[in-house]
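Lab notebook: predicted structure, single chain.

Context: the supervisor wants predicted structures on file for every construct in the current expression panel, including those that have not yet been purified. This is the next one on the list. No modifications to the sequence; it matches the entry in the shared construct table.
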Amino acid sequence: MTGTTGTTGTLVLAGTPIGDVADAPPRLAAELATADVVAAEDTRRLRRLTQALGVQTTGRVVSYFEGNESARTPELVEALEDGKRVLLVTDAGMPSVSDPGYRLVAAAVEKDIRVTAVPGPSAVLTALALSGLPVDRFCFEGFLPRKAGERLGKLREVAAEKRTMVFFEAPHRLDDTLAAMAEVFGAERRAAVCRELTKTYEEVKRGPLKTLAAWAAEGVRGEITVVVEGAPDAGPQDLDPAELVRRVQVREEAGERRKEAIAAVAAEAGLPKRDVFDAVVAAKNAARTGSAEGKGLS
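Prediction complete. Output recorded below exactly as produced.
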């Protein structure tokens, strides 16, 4: 596909500072000054960034955020087909990582348009490095669902994940999220809450999930990234019957049928399904016996 210049343009994904503007890569200033089109998640924040960098944009500035991403993408692709250099920036970090950008990249790739990047700060990698948890293998899960039931369901899906996990979360939901993680992953699972990374009030709080949940209940502010240790290698000797029952109950409360929950817990623990089933039945019988004895005493 050729445009008026005889060749297609280039899409540039530019990382922006996650806190300290001094972290901006030198190439960012040059790209901002020379791009034909600058697509910004928030044009007001872009203006503050260019002022801080002492740069003036010469190209056309357009907004590109979640609400208009689908509608704006064809327009930007057309500019790329006409040979323009389009720079995409989001509020903080790398575009398309829990931010607008994926649709535009996919559309550009489909049209065989060159896509490149100005590497920049990443809250995901910064938090991972500061967490003190294993970094050799990790996965990024982004934001969890806002509704409690859906959140539990998503956590249940990754309960057996052995890689270190990285999540984003809003400060007003942090206590509920950490409490849900403690319920699903286990209260003693190690984690780190990274707050206001690279900013004046940067803080990294490390500890078991139950401890972090209690801390967050007092109120937390700022941009939050949560890093959670992966699931340990579980075996028959690692999980007692009470823990097996607890895991089944967590899955049932999240909407899973008991048969499916038992099978999943057995797979996680490396146990025969019969062992988990027997533990659930024994707990159920114990609860009935306790209830009957209580009635007899009354």
